[in-house]
Amino acid sequence: MLSVDTSALTFVGEGLSRPECVMATRSGDLFVPDKRGGISVVRANGRTEFIAAKNGPKGFLPNGFALLPDRSFMVADLGPEGGVWHMAPDGQMTPKLLEIDGKHLEPTNFVGLDAKGRIWVSVSTKLVPREQSMKKGHADGYIILIDEKGARVVADDIGFTNEAIVDPSGDWLYVNETIARRTSRYPIAADGSLGTRETFAQYGAASFPDGFAFDVEGAVWTVTVVSNRVIRTTVDGVQQVIFEDSDAGDIAEAEAAFQDGTYTRDHLDRGGRRPSGNLSGISFGGPDLKTAYLGSLFAPRLASFRSPVAGAPPVHWEF
């Protein structure tokens, strides 16, 4: 199986600001959130364009987002206002979901679209600031489903909810739990409700899972902050580290702090000292879906490498 060295990475895009996750399309266009308050598009010809949000919430910090068929966006606001916002192709913002069960949403992590047009929203924690939840064993994250019946919480008590994506079969919602250091999955019932959580993958020292993608063999490719790893887990549970860009001292300190309860945002951010910039997202693209693009919290460009296994076409592939 593939093993990638940092010297094998290629880069696309220029001047990106916190390209936390990546959406790739058949057209070759790549979409990433931009800390300046909007979405950046890396065109197939390599040109980078920034779409600035208009009339958005104060302190808008776009994080995970869904690309819609008209190339508008459903965006999670990780800023102080939180919630889910619709962003038109020209940047015009309108609120989609700002409260649930009569309570204003906390800073919101991710929005995923499935093949049935349903929207899955992840909130990492009810604590503000979020850093208070970065403790071993803490689990107050939750998932919201938005469909034709409205919005409702469908899962809770999650160990820092990160990306939540319906798998290609449509039968399972996979979720990365960053602080629980695992990829979980829930069976999806016909009405959108979720069954009992299962652990698909449990990760080891200093592997804090953030973004992920599926390949055509059903494996899950997860990227981890702090350790800057790309980990492939097959359907039978076999894990392989495809790529790693870490400092042994930094990850040892982060792991020790996590275990003794002194883990802080500083430990998380140390992965940003490395060339890959603290990996946080992954998407397969290219004409054959064999180019893996890597999002990050700090790098000004997207790193990429070639994979021998094609990615599964995401819901937005033809958009």
Describe the protein's architecture and organization.
The chain has helices at residues 248-260, 265-269, and strands spanning 10-12, 23-24, 30-34, 38-42, 48-52, 62-67, 73-77, 84-87, 93-97, 99-100, 103-104, 110-113, 119-123, 141-147, 150-158, 161-166, 172-177, 182-187, 198-202, 207-214, 220-226, 229-233, 239-244, 279-285, 291-296, 302-306. With 319 residues, the chain is mostly beta strands. The strands form seven sheets. It has a four-stranded antiparallel β-sheet, with no helix packed on it. It has a four-stranded antiparallel β-sheet with strand order 2-3-4-5, with no helix packed on it. The two termini are 31 Å apart. The mean pLDDT is 97.
Quickly describe the structure.
By secondary structure, this protein is mainly beta. The chain has helices at residues 248-260, 265-269, and strands spanning 10-12, 23-24, 30-34, 38-42, 48-52, 62-67, 73-77, 84-87, 93-97, 99-100, 103-104, 110-113, 119-123, 141-147, 150-158, 161-166, 172-177, 182-187, 198-202, 207-214, 220-226, 229-233, 239-244, 279-285, 291-296, 302-306.
Strand content: 35-45%
Rg over alpha carbons: 18 Å
Helix content: under 10%
Largest sheet descriptor: 4 strands, antiparallel
Multimerization state: single chain
Structural class: mainly beta
**How would you describe the shape?**
globular
Q: What is the number of beta strands?
A: 26
Helix and strand sequence? EEEEEEEEEEEEEEEEEEEEEEEHHEEE
Low-confidence stretches: none
Structural features:
2 helices; mainly beta; four-stranded antiparallel β-sheet; 26 strands; single chain
